[in-house]
Design brief:
heterodimer; A: Glutaredoxin; Rossmann fold; five-stranded mixed sheet; 40% helix; B: alpha/beta; elongated
């Protein structure tokens, strides 16, 4: 089964094999087994499913899949009925699994009360086609459609197109949903410049946070002098509160690999690296399997798709350093050195890995490439806002009812995100702040809720949420404590190369400690502002320059809370130890 | 500052070898030493500035900015360096050590030993070509004290060979090799690092520099189980601190330490990426999420 793929017919053959396991003619039991599921007991659910099927003698296949995004409902177990829809059951336990399967085996009972949602069909985003489940099961109709659930209404899956649907270890199932068609079209039918034009026209911008136009970056690298070029995938998702890249790599590794393949072809690279952080062992293992499988099919390695061009991908595993998410520090780390940032210019597109032109893109950026090729730039550019096209993935978490991964076209507001998709705040508590777009952005107050989410900050209009963590904070959170937490985070992660960052953060942490323990003075706020100004002006890299704005944003929007801590020695939310709580919070 | 009469006095007393000699020896050519020399010279003293390294300037010459004002360090020190070198009253002795000191205040005899520079400073133009050609710099002959002291046990040597063989020809092998050693031994044993440095022909310091940079590479042995409590933003907002305190209490050690019995090492980690099911922790690579305080104790019990 590992004949190299050369032609569209070869791809069709693999597709047929994939479809057979993806939508079999008999009962299929699927357990969401990404890290988020496994951490809350998906392993035990899977084991119970296997044991029960054997015990009852059910004619069923059992499969694993990645995370479908609805992490707060994990562990999820799906039944794909032989002649009916796909039904998902949420918050499963081994006991529930046993009773569900026993009831089904006995009388075909579907236990709709335990069900979360039902798929009438699945869209294959890459091809624009899909699979429609035949629905002759009356009982299933009691279960709501997936797309009618708050959490999924308004979502549009492009990057997460196959997460939670395919077995991430099966390249056949990825191909069955359209993977590697884009690569085939690009490599066999399109000149390199045409590929880059298509990406430029799509308006795709870097999804890692800086929002640089991806096609431009590729063009610079293509034009840069040199025969040896590299592509790099930045999967060092160190930003606390973000887990989108992990989910993509664990759920659909071929999405990223195909993007890198197309990018490497376009700029003329022969080698690629995926830099994954050490904290994601499952993502590393899944990706390695994906690379091996792709090499067997001749989709990576020598003579790709019969073109004579070679391209290899290697995984580099980080070792626990936040700063390695910064692209030049990441390159240093791939070269085997300590991950300290380089000065730019020269930019990596001119002088990156070992001095060669290098394109560094985020996991989500790479995963967005293949659909642009198969569906066209115009299709992609039709999604999103005037300035920011397409979709991106956010992780919505903290004090919201529905937490998990959300993929939306740009242009929604934070309010739609939190109160629509997120289903509001538990117990209808008031919203106090949102920590969005990475630690350095600090916490923003509810007055920002009606700004649209974009890749540009426009006053009174849009809000940039670069790295896509959205952490919702209700009135039980203390903004002074959050500021202290964020400073301590940066203090931990400062590499210590330059003095403003290393010493400035130490001083800031000291001041925040004083304020949180009731020993702060009014002068401390002034001192914080002065320190922040110095650090912003003098730090070598973005980390030191951005870190003080975490505190400054909190201070700007929640100054009264800081002053209560200092003047009244009270913590309104009752978080800071040793300070009396005030107000009505309990 | 010093009147002519005083200078006269210095000059005259110098002759009879009894009174103050009129010369000052400054030890250390950093910014403080340079400023002291300049001030003393202005005050009319003859200055000998002794510096152990090949050049004066010290720590400040290596800094980009000064704290807390953010002033440019070079802009402060460069004029002083030039002034110091041009001042006819200051004699700069670099690569020199004070070998002996005799006499009393106002009348010392200092013995200064200069080390070989291996460069003819009269001919040197500072082109830097000797750097590339230097056999000492490119092939460090480690002083005896830095040579590996202990011969590795046969199994350790084989294991190291295997690890190195897997990364043969990879120019960026340092981090992956250190990771593999770290995974095999649960930390980076000193003797293995020494062997590694000597096999690669690099200084131990450059291996340690990489090893100490990354959180996951550990230079100290760890306990039988490693408990990593997530302290990401989402976990923090959902009570990660209380969870950490419960862990500290149950294990009996503060975060960052290993309990006396060597069973658990407790540390915090910034984000396990389980943000939508916080708070979370990881023990020996196995993730646990959506934790409550009592659940934490139960989970610890599973790891004996």
């Amino acid at each position: 089964m590992s004949q190299p793929i050369r032609t569209a017919e070869d791809l069709k053959g693999v597709e047929a094999a994939g479809l057979a396991t993806l939508y079999p003619d008999k009962l299929k039991i699927v357990v969401g087994s990404a890290s988020c599921g496994l951490a809350v007991g998906a392993g035990a659910v899977l084991a119970a499913a296997i044991a029960t099927v054997k015990e009852l003698g059910l004619d069923a296949t059992i499969a694993r899949t990645g995370c479908i995004g609805f992490c707060s409902q994990e562990p999820l177990l799906d039944l794909l009925l032989p002649n009916g829809p796909r039904i998902s059951y949420a918050r499963m336990t081994p006991e529930k699994t046993r009773s569900l399967l026993a009831a089904y085996a006995k009388s075909g009972e579907l236990s709709p009360d335990m069900a979360l949602g039902r798929f009438a069909g699945e869209e294959h985003v890459l091809t624009g086609e899909g699979h429609v489940y035949t629905s002759s099961q009356k009982a299933a109709e009691a279960v709501p459609e997936w797309s009618s659930l708050d959490f999924f209404r308004g979502q549009q899956k492009v990057i997460l197109r196959s997460c939670g649907s395919i077995d991430p270890l099966s390249i056949d199932e990825a191909i069955a949903r359209g993977a590697y068609r884009g690569a085939m079209v690009a490599i066999q039918e399109m000149p390199q410049d045409k590929v880059i034009d298509e990406v430029i026209n799509s308006g795709l911008r870097g999804r890692g946070g800086a929002a640089f136009p991806t096609g431009q970056k590729w063009r610079f690298a293509r034009k840069a002098a040199g025969d040896t070029k590299y592509v790099v995938c930045n999967a060092d998702e160190g930003e606390p509160g973000a887990c989108m890249d992990r989910t993509v790599l664990e759920g659909d590794p071929h999405a990223t690999l195909e993007g890198m393949l197309i990018g490497a072809f376009a700029i003329g690279a022969q080698e690629g690296f995926v830099y994954v952080r050490n904290e994601y062992p499952l993502a590393i293992a899944t990706l390695q399997t994906a690379i091996d499988e792709a090499e067997k099919y001749g989709l990576l390695g020598d003579d790709i798709l019969g073109s004579g061009w070679s391209f290899r991908v290697r995984i580099r595993v980080g070792a626990g350093a936040y700063i390695c998410g910064e692209e030049t520090a990441l390159l240093e780390s791939i070269e085997g050195a300590a991950g300290e940032p380089r000065s730019r210019p020269p930019f990596p597109v001119v002088s990156g890995l070992w001095g060669c032109p290098t394109v560094v893109n985020n996991v989500k950026t790479w995963a967005s490439v293949a659909p642009i090729i198969t569906r066209g730039a115009a299709w992609y550019a039709a999604m999103g806002t005037r300035s920011t096209k397409g979709t991106t993935v956010f992780s919505l978490e903290g004090a919201v009812n529905n937490s998990g991964l959300v993929e939306i076209p740009f242009g929604l507001t934070l309010r739609e995100m939190i109160y629509g998709i997120g289903g509001g705040i538990p117990n209808d508590r008031p919203l106090k702040a949102v920590q969005a777009g990475g630690a350095a952005r600090g916490c923003i107050p509810p007055s920002f809720l009606d700004l649209t989410i974009d890749m540009e900050d426009r006053p009174n209009e849009s809000l940039m949420i670069g790295t896509g963590g959205i952490i919702v904070l209700d009135d039980k959170a203390c903004m002074v404590d959050m500021a202290r937490y964020l400073v301590e985070f940066f203090l931990d992660e400062s590499c210590g190369k330059c003095v403003p960052c290393r010493e400035g953060l130490r001083q800031m942490a000291g001041i925040m400690d004083r304020i949180c323990t009731g020993e702060g003075s009014e002068a401390d706020l002034f001192l914080l502002e002065r320190l922040a100004g110095t650090m912003k002006a003098a730090a070598v890299c973005g980390l030191g320059g951005m870190a003080p704005s975490a505190v400054m944003t909190n201070l700007q929007h929640f100054r009264d809370e800081f002053e209560t801590h200092i003047r009244d020695k009270q913590c309104p939310a009752g978080v800071c130890r040793g300070l009396a709580p005030t107000g009505t919070t309990n | 500052m010093t009147s002519d009469a005083n200078q006269q006095k210095v000059a005259t007393t110098n002759k009879d070898d009894k009174g103050p000699c009129g010369a000052v020896l400054v030890c250390g050519g950093g910014i403080a030493g340079i400023q002291a020399s300049l001030d003393l010279s202005a005050a009319g003293f003859r200055v000998y500035l002794v510096e152990e390294s090949p050049t004066i300037g010290g720590g400040m010459a290596r800094l980009d900015k000064t704290f807390p004002t953010g002033d440019c360090a070079t802009c402060i020190i460069s004029p002083k360096l030039v002034e110091c070198m041009r001042d006819l009253n200051i004699e700069v002795l670099t690569m020199a050590d004070v070998a002996g000191l005799e006499g009393e205040a106002g009348h010392f005899h200092a013995k200064v030993q200069k080390r070989p520079r291996s460069v003819d400073s009269a001919k040197c133009t500072g082109c830097g070509d000797c750097w590339a050609a230097c056999p000492v710099r490119n092939h460090p002959e480690l002083p005896a004290e830095f040579q590996p002291q202990i011969q590795l046990k046969a199994e350790d040597a084989t294991r190291l060979d295997e690890i190195l063989a897997r990364h043969e020809g990879d120019p960026g092998a340092m981090v992956p090799v250190l990771r593999e050693i770290n995974n095999a031994y649960r930390y980076l044993p000193r003797e293995i690092l020494e062997q590694l440095a000597s096999r690669w022909g690099v200084r131990l310091a450059s291996v340690l520099r990489v090893a100490s940079f990354y959180d996951q590479l550990r230079l100290e042995p760890v306990g039988h189980h490693v408990v990593e409590a997530c302290d990401g933003t989402s976990c923090h907002s959902k009570g990660a601190r209380a969870m950490l305190e419960r862990l500290e209490e149950k294990i009996g050690v503060a975060a960052g330490g290993t309990d006396p019995s060597g069973r658990f090492t407790l540390r915090t980690v910034r984000c396990l990426g389980l943000c939508a099911s916080s708070p979370a922790m990881r023990i020996d690579g196995q993730n646990f999420a959506r934790l409550d305080l009592d659940g934490v104790s139960d989970i610890l019990e599973q790891f004996k």
